[in-house]
Amino acid sequence: MSAKIRYIHNANIGYGGAHNIAIREAIENGAKYHVVINPDIYFFPGTIELLSDYMDQHKDVGQVMPKVLYPNGELQHLCKLLPTPMDLLFRRFLPDQFLNQRRSRFEMRFSGYNKEMNVPFLSGCFMFLRIDTLKETGLFDERFFMYGEDIDLCRRIHRKYKTMYYPQAIITHVHEAASYKNKKMLRIHICNIIKYFNKWGWIIDSERIKVNKAAIHSSMP
Questions:
Q1: In b/e form, how buried is each residue of 40-61, taking b as 16+ CB within 10 angstroms?
Q2: Could you give phi then psi for residue 158, rounded to 5 degrees?
Q3: Contact criterion met (CB below 8 Å) for 102 and 87
């Protein structure tokens, strides 16, 4: 095992809470960037260097995400608008044929995913974060045990900085989608998404409307 690796053992305090321990240590150690990743991520050569160089050259960017592929090479559509309750909750209980058009819009498929974009919600499977930005916007909200914390953090960063999709850098994500396969994880998912909408607004969310309109306009082909 590399001497550069250090395991931090702690109680199960949730995804965001556990990552905050590592982020606070990174801040104490004077780190410039911090990467939050799922365990099922695989890197293409030079990914970290590309993202680091990109952030070095774009001081107005607080978070960046690379292009994300399934192991078979298929694109994962992980650039998203700020969600409505339909996008995160009610869609689970409706047939796909009623949701395909809405899902396509929510996942910004109209953009083509072939250019840099300032995206309101970048998936939490891979979060390349600027430490100075986190000092200003705050870390993960530890009220979210698991699910929803990535939307909340990206949204707070997007208020003050760009949150960019950068397709020149590429990773592979196996993506198990645990909450679709496990009833316990489904309950956790639903409870935390409810917390998200309790915090930001269910139907009335003027910021969501404004931010999504800007993202759609700027990312059209």
A1: ebeeeeebeebbbebbeebeeb
A2: -65, -25
A3: yes
- What is the rounded CA–CA span in Å between residue 66 and residue 64? 7
What's the rounded Cα separation, in Å, for the pair 64 and 52? 9
Token readout for 51 is 């993202």
Tokens of 47: 């990914």
pLDDT for 93-111, tens place per residue? Answer: 566 666 788 899 999 999 9
Instruction: Phi first, then psi: give them for residue 164, nearest 5 degrees.
Output: -105, 145
Structure token digits, residue 207: 């910021």
Per-residue pLDDT of 126-173, as tens digits, reads 999 999 999 999 999 999 988 899 999 999 999 999 999 999 999 999
Closest CA to 120 of 96, 149, 156, 93: 156
